[in-house]
Amino acid sequence: MKFPFVVAMLSLSAVCFHCAQVDPLPGQRDEVVGMWGINPDGSPSSSGHSVSAPTSGGGLAREINLKVDMVPKGTHGRKVVRPMQPRYITIHSTQNYSADAWRHSLALKRGALRSPKRKGGNRIGYLIWHFTVDDKVAIQHMPTNEQGEHADFDGPGNRSSIGIEMCEHRGSNRSATIERTAKLTAKLMHDNGIPLSRVVPHYHWPRRGKNPPNKNCPHFLLDNGRPGAKWRWFLGRVDYHYKRAYQHTYASR
Asked: Is the peptide bond between 218 and the residue preceding it cis, with omega within 30 degrees of 0?
């Protein structure tokens, strides 16, 4: 998604972000750094990381470091509450290089992230999603049984998917953010009975009236703007953490 920040509220630069395609920072390039000895293309990583030991669901939750900082019901992005039975998990990246997860949470609670309300478009005049993840923490902004405004306006992405945003602020560790997101995704799969086949990028949901209809998002997990080897690698990380924490559940899937 793409939205403006309120500078005075957050002391951030005025930028448009949330899945908007922008150039990488000077001297940097979009890449996914391999974790636990595996690169996105499946080749061994030179980082020397070893494979994590098996854990439990509770252990996985501790690794995620999930904090709850809800947008108050009846305000801003939650001023209209639409019930949802989540069937998908949608992965985004902010492409905002100025804000970590806590600043995004503050923006959502203050109603700083607006989007024009229109028929066939944004339904409430605000953007909102369920979780924001950075390299240190994952923050929940709304219940997973409520619809957000993060994917495809009045389409099935908003009506049936849990939205997760990955931060990209300067100085953060992208690999750690991706890995925390994979762990959170695995937990949400388990908690909501969602299969790996329904973990999708924002790209998966076409936006009516937009050109192109499918967003290049999350940009650093897509290949030439489309799901490919990098996205399959990310799904492999999600599946790895699911098996690691919920082996008995996995065996019965």
From this structure: yes
